[in-house]
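Re: [ENG-882] Designed sequences occasionally contain unexpected residues at chain ends

Forwarding the minimal case from QA. Structure tokens:
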């Protein structure tokens, strides 16, 4: 059965292109590859430019800044380092409706009545903020010494009325790096780093974290059940515990200075 005319033309075109390609010189083929590579690079650059445009809009547009400020704060918090305190200063005006924030230079901090008090180291959120789709009820910032340990422990983070499991589910969708948290036997989700004298080393076994006095400096991100009756649900906490070197503490918690 003869092929339809359109199919014959298509086959003829394909054959012609294949013949031209086979007849092309090595220089011509190299030039085509270079042109294809340049087009791919241009496409990738356009994607980057669009992303940067959106970022610039979030930085410069007051409405966009107001909307993105709580999300940016929680994103920065998840690294358990100085990033959150820099974001708090950067977005102080936008966050003022939710938290009392003090700044010194490029460092900001959410104020609590007394870091050293078991009953006054937290503050309620105002205007029921949502951070990365997570309802937030309060913030805490505590410095305490456990038992006979000589090194204080530093805890800071947020309260949400949701369960630890639901909190983890929501945050891991918005912050893919949190998928690396490991569930322990008590239903908490933990990321544990230990200081080896030069840098932080990620521990693969979260059960080694018990929130007890330790002779080794540890940095912890944990999602677990809240221990505060005024803030039922879940706490999302960062912790520095054990003998954290002074310079390291200053770099991670510049707000303490």
């Amino acid at each position: 059965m003869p092929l339809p005319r359109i199919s014959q033309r298509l086959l003829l075109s394909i054959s012609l292109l294949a013949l031209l390609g086979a007849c092309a010189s090595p220089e011509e083929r190299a030039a085509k590859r270079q042109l294809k590579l340049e087009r791919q690079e241009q496409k990738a650059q356009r994607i980057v430019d669009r992303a940067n445009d959106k970022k610039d809009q979030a930085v410069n547009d007051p409405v966009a800044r107001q909307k993105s400020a709580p999300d940016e704060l929680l994103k920065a918090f998840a690294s358990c380092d100085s990033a959150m305190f820099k974001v708090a200063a950067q977005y102080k005006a936008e966050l003022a409706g939710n938290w009392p924030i003090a700044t010194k230079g490029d460092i900001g901090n959410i104020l609590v009545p007394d870091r050293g008090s078991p009953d006054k180291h937290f503050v309620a959120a105002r205007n029921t903020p949502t951070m990365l789709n997570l309802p937030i009820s309060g913030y805490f910032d505590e410095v305490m010494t456990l038992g006979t340990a000589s090194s204080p422990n530093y805890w800071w983070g947020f309260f949400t009325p949701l369960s630890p499991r639901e909190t983890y589910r929501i945050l891991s969708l918005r912050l893919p790096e949190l998928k690396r948290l490991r569930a322990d036997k008590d239903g908490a989700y933990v990321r544990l780093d230990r200081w080896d004298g030069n840098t932080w080393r990620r521990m693969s076994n979260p059960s080694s974290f018990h929130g007890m006095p330790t002779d080794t400096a540890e940095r912890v991100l944990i999602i677990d059940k809240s221990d505060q009756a005024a803030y039922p649900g879940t706490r999302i906490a960062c912790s520095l515990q054990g003998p954290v070197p002074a310079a390291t503490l200053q770099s991670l918690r510049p707000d303490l200075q």
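QA comment: On inspection the terminal residues look reasonable. The first helix runs from residue 5 to 23. Proposing we downgrade this to a documentation issue.
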